[in-house]
């Protein structure tokens, strides 16, 4: 059962190469539906996507007024609808050992949630 969200400031969400390329060009994206995120970095990674050049992840900094529903069983947080995110930086990490035992490149997009 979901409960009211606990205090949290950074959440993670995986994204496709296509979305990553869009963010590199536009640097702002609006999600019109609800936005699933997680408190656990590796939960945001879809390790089955071997065809993607690297794992693309958002690290989303949430403002104090952010609202969402928290499920403690899987550390999942569903944020409110119509969220606008702005990319404020990108970092690349090469040859990171993932939980499935493979070495992957990771691209982490630092995102801010806008009001």
In words, what does this structure look like?
The chain is mainly beta and 115 residues long. The chain has a single domain (3-114), classed as Toxin ADP-ribosyltransferase, Chain A, domain 1 (Alpha-Beta Complex). 9% of the residues lie in helices and 50% in strands. It contains one helix and nine strands, in the order E-E-H-E-E-E-E-E-E-E. The protein has one helix spanning 17-26, and strands spanning 3-4, 10-15, 28-31, 35-38, 55-61, 68-71, 76-79, 83-97, 103-114. Strands 2-5-9-8-3 form a five-stranded mixed β-sheet. A four-stranded antiparallel β-sheet has the order 1-6-7-4, with no helix packed on it. A hairpin with a 4-residue loop joins strand 6 and strand 7 (76-79). The longest helix is centred in the N-terminal third of the chain and has 10 residues, at 17-26. The mean pLDDT is 84.
Order of helices and strands: EEHEEEEEEE
- Per CATH, the architecture is Alpha-Beta Complex
Output the CATH topology.
Toxin ADP-ribosyltransferase, Chain A, domain 1
- CA-based gyration radius: 14 Å
In DSSP terms (H or I, runs of 4 or more residues), the helix count works out at 1
Q: What sort of overall outline do the alpha carbons produce when their principal axes are compared?
A: globular
Total beta strand runs: 9
Find the CATH superfamily: Toxin ADP-ribosyltransferase, Chain A, domain 1
**Largest β sheet strand count, sense and barrel closure:** 5 strands, mixed
- How are strands sequenced across the largest beta sheet? 2-5-9-8-3
- Report the top-level CATH class: Alpha Beta
Q: What level of helicity do the residues show? A: under 10%
Secondary-structure-based class equals mainly beta
Q: Summarize model confidence as the mean pLDDT.
A: 84
Task: Name the poorly predicted regions.
Answer: none
Percentage of β-strand residues: over 45%
């Amino acid at each position: 059962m979901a409960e009211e969200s606990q205090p949290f400031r950074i959440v993670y969400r995986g994204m496709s190469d296509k979305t990553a390329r869009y963010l590199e060009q536009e640097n702002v994206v609006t999600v019109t539906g609800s936005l699933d995120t997680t408190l656990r970095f590796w939960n945001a990674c879809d390790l089955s996507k071997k065809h993607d050049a690297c794992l693309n992840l958002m690290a989303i900094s949430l403002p104090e007024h952010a609202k969402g529903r928290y499920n403690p069983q899987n550390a999942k947080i569903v944020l409110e609808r119509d969220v606008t995110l702005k990319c404020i930086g990108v970092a690349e990490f090469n040859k990171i050992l993932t939980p499935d035992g493979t070495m992957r490149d990771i691209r982490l997009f630092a995102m801010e949630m806008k009001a």
